[in-house]
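Researcher: Batch entry, complex prediction.
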Amino acid sequence: MDKEHHQAILEKIWPTVKKKHLYPEIPMPRVGELAGSEEGEGSKDEGVGLEMKEKQMTLNSTFLSNVKGRMPEEQVIEALLDHGITHYTFCPWDFHTHVALYSQAKKVMGDKTLAKRAANYFIDVVSDTHCVKKRFSDIPELHRTLKKGKVEEVIACLYQQIWGVDLGFSRSGKSGKGYDDVVRRLARIPYLDRSRWHESIQKFSRTMKPLLMEEQQEEGSQGGKGEPNPQGEHDLNNYSYEEIDEGLRECANDKMALSEFREMVEDFSEELKEAGYGMEGGMGRGRGTAIDADVLFYMKLAENYAIPLRKVLLEEKGTLHPHSHAPWEVGSPYQDVDIWTSFGKIMPGITQVWKKKQGKGKGKLDGTPDCLIAIDSSGSMINPRKSLSYAVLGAACATNAYLRNGSKVGVYNFSDAPMGGKDVLDYTNKREAIYRVLCKYFGGGTALDLDDLVPLIRNRKNLDLFIITDMKITNIEALISYFAQIENRITAVHIGENPYAARFEKAIGKRTNINIFTVKRKEDIPNIILGKIREYFHSSH
Amino acid sequence: MKNLPLPNRDPTDPKNRPLIPNPFEEFEIHTFAKAEIPLDRIVESMEVVMDEIRRGYEKLLEEEAKELVWMVQYNTIIKAYEVAEKYVKEIRYCAEDIEDFCFALENTQRIPYLIPGPAGLYISALCNYVQEEEILLKLSELKTEINLLGFRLPKGKRLIIEGDTGDFTGIGVEGGELVVEGGAKNWTGAGMRSGKILVKKNIGLHTGEWMMGGEIHVGGRVRGLGNIVEGKVFEREKLVYPGKVRYPNSYY
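Model: Structure tokens for the complex:
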């Protein structure tokens, strides 16, 4: 009965709230029953008032009934909606910001649970303060009404100071312990300055650390279950798969080092698995068992680079043809957007992308052959699991380029191959399997075993070769003479400048099917053109 | 029909303009009332103070940059402290501003140079001239251990530092009380005249070198005592100077 009543109120006020927040693009919230809420005035806390899952806000009917006597339901609903919407429109805004804030908090707190808690409190303070400053909101009234623990009391004192409203709390606190210096320090944080959030959350965490630790200890002694946040918990459930994907890409691209990324993925492993990341059965959708953070890092980082791939005349393969339309989603790439049917707009619901299919033509058509990637993982190369390896990144970009065109990729990861320091993966289109072999590090001497390589190339008329190494290969002469015998397109990438690379370059001479590129920095990777045959290239231009 | 001459109208006269409705009339400029909350004022005033503190530090560095190598010598310290005092006296700030400045020193975007010597002297000057009598600096999350903290701490002031401090902590203390919740390095309390230094954890070499009075209490171990003229040093509540047990710069 209450549920229908709350739903009716929600439907009545939703247009006003939407207008107030300048029409955010989120679905109509709904009223439901959420887990972890007890009914009745006598219960210790009101439970969770709001839950957000993939932009869908759900208001807890039990919570609304519990606070009914203390605040009009309409106001409670509006305050909760204001709070929820602000998470989408201001803080944390997106997955990347959320994770970045968490990482900063972790630097101070040193503990995953405490860091998550600190980040959640910070996000709530920023959102509520933004709401109070920018829009007329009943959030202060809601805070006045809610029952509070020690930390919430301190936050309420902070609100009193920074909002200039009386929420009925004194700085001395109920427990008699003075929070004055904590509140004073917290009040000096520029919460609304987005450009300083990293610095701000560190200060916030520093100041709150003793209190949060105390709270954690108390919870531990009470069986480990803390009071739920009435304004909802902030976990990765708030984000869609595409948003998480985009956020991970951004994290890998510019903000985080490999170690930081790994730490973050490990900390959020449960949530990421829930979202569909997991190595077993594919690092794609569907639940898995474990996430290899390093592999995920290279996967997401490589998605930021697109290296061109020259096509070749193939008998049975055709190029990818636009076949049908599909709706575009936030976070999906833009290159396949059909601007004509999307009316020139990038907006979910309006924008459409082309779904491509490979055509099968008679005679010869432009197509993409399969590729064999030979990657050097000897001691002179960087261990990709310790720091950013340009070799793995380059190979990952090449993998993406071939897979995107519907081809298969085989991997030959070598160090001291004749002594067993090698890993061979047969041609496949399973991205995570390829990445796993690419990320393998042997760290021994550098020698190729042609007996391994030849069977992978033999009888494959249309096959591209991609070799990425620092060229410090002991049996490089054997490799050069083998390359001289084959007609396949070969892209050789050497990491850094050294005399070995110069020797290789000289030995290859003017062979038109071999192209050599140097990678000294991350930015050099897009300059690689896969399968670039000089003659082929010149003849068409 | 004969054409009548048109009346000579001035087009610049607003009365003579044709009455064409303004097509944008319906699009009113919508202005939201700019709400201000106390946070804005707090942050703004804090920024002003922080800028002044930062400017003072930069001026001190400019003066000290003339010395190519900053050596911790009696004259250098006195001279630098006097310069710091000069700038600090002109600023109105509170204890939290000092703490914020300590963290800002590590933020290279905001303050490009952290030179531990002058920085420590400048922070000491800030502590000595702040209005509050008790100053609590929560520096446990600071990555750098700042030297020379608590320099010339005057009588009536109590400086509490959460975290560890570097070399020359509490040198020349003049009657104040310095509490270090962590450990301190070498030359702690050197040349102090009166007052009290309390270090909760361990302390380094040359502790109390040329100390003229006052007390140093160490909760952990004292690695080595300096040449003490007068005063008392306690290690885990046990008097180690004056006493026969410890000799100058003895290692344990």
